[in-house]
Design a protein that fits this description.
The structure is a single chain. With 333 residues, the protein is an all-alpha fold. It has helices at 6-25, 36-41, 43-78, 90-104, 116-139, 150-174, 177-187, 197-215, 217-223, 227-232, 237-259, 265-277, 281-305, 314-332; strands at residues 110-111, 114-115. The protein has a single domain (6-332), classed as ABC transporter involved in vitamin B12 uptake, BtuC, CATH 1.10.3470.10. It contains 14 helices and two strands; from the N terminus they run ααααββαααααααααα. Strands 1-2 form a two-stranded antiparallel sheet. A hairpin with a 2-residue loop joins β1 (110-111) and β2. The longest helix has 36 residues, at 43-78.
Length: 333
């Protein structure tokens, strides 16, 4: 049975209240404030609220929560508070896959109801995941049957990230002006969605990743003590790590396919939640899910209102916040 101290229980209730408030209030905020009465009496404003604002807030909430959970997984596996979905090149691989679909001209097509961009992003995410496992495994000696160390996987992830970033630059160079602008704008990250189809596209992948992470959340606690100690406590290190990395890849691929590579959410939110809720991942998992959702929803609301009627890509806002956050953490540590 999980015991939650009273202070942390209050924080969890606060996060639940903030999540409900964000979903309930933020759709009314935009270039023009809306009231409940106006939505009920005016069909034009009702259509805007239902078809644009509400799905956008829900999409931002799910994307922010998913990225925060992925960051939590990476930070727990590598015992590094600076790890995030970009650490293993998963986000870079997903971005490359989606950019390749855009360049091919198939961005508007779908396969079995799944947009081609989403398929490309998922293929890129799994390709980067496979390359990281292959490179980190090859770095072990032939006689070493132990799982690759976190440092080996981390270095392999950095190499894969640079590799896919180089391929992205090559794609931009080979594309024409319109395609290059489309790719650059998409790489900035954004939640400028219309209707519920993008949310429904992202939901199965995010849900699958979150469920797989929740099923292995106890292993994350043991990873904090070191892999040798975790193995003595009955954790199947190689299997658990592979499942957690696979869960993060699924989630990141689904999110990137809709929102693009929104950076720093997966690094900042788990780090802040850990300072409030402690090291238990059974508490951190729902806390990061809610805190990441609230954070990205607020950032997206600010991005679409601060220079209205124009919009700022939400990835620009999170990047502007992430830089000072890194400086703060460096000075603190």
């Amino acid at each position: 049975m999980l015991f939650i101290p009273q202070k942390r229980f209050v924080w969890i209730l606060t996060l639940i209240a903030l999540s409900i408030t964000a979903i309930a209030i933020l759709p009314f905020i935009g270039m023009e404030l809306m009231s409940v009465g106006r939505i009920l009496t005016d069909s034009f404003h009702r259509d805007i609220f239902i078809a644009i604002r509400l799905p956008r807030v829900l999409t931002a909430f799910l994307a922010g929560g998913g990225l925060a959970v992925c960051g939590l997984v990476f930070q727990g596996l590598f015992r590094n508070p600076m790890a995030d979905p970009y650490t293993l090149g998963v986000a870079s691989g997903a971005s490359f896959g989606a950019a390749a679909v855009i360049l091919s001209g198939a961005a508007g097509t779908a396969l079995l109801g799944v947009p081609a961009t989403a398929i490309g992003a998922l293929c890129g995410a799994f390709l980067s995941f496979a390359l990281v496992l292959a490179f980190s495994g090859a770095a072990n000696r032939p006689t070493d049957r132990a799982a690759p160390s976190p440092h080996t996987i981390l270095l392999a992830g950095i190499a894969v990230s640079f590799f896919f970033s180089s391929l992205l630059m090559f794609l931009q160079y080979m594309s024409d002006t319109r395609e290059s602008f489309h790719i650059v704008r998409w790489l900035m990250g954004g939640v400028d969605v219309f209707g519920y189809r993008p949310l429904l596209t992202m939901l199965p992948f995010a849900a699958a990743g979150l469920i797989l992470t929740a099923a292995n959340v106890t292993a994350l606690d043991h990873f904090l003590t070191g892999e040798d100690i975790a193995q003595t406590r009955g954790v199947r290190v190689r299997l658990s790590r592979g499942l957690l990395l696979c869960a993060a890849s699924i989630t990141v691929g689904g999110i990137v396919s809709v929102c693009g590579p929104v950076c720093f959410v997966g690094m900042m939110i788990p780090h802040l939640c850990r300072g409030v809720f402690g090291a238990s991942h059974r508490i951190l998992l729902p806390a990061c899910l809610m805190a990441g959702g609230v954070f990205l929803s607020i950032c997206d609301t600010f991005a679409r209102t601060v220079i209205a009627p124009a919009e700022i890509p939400v990835g620009v806002i999170t990047a502007l916040l992430g830089g000072p956050f890194l400086v703060w953490v460096s000075r603190k540590k």
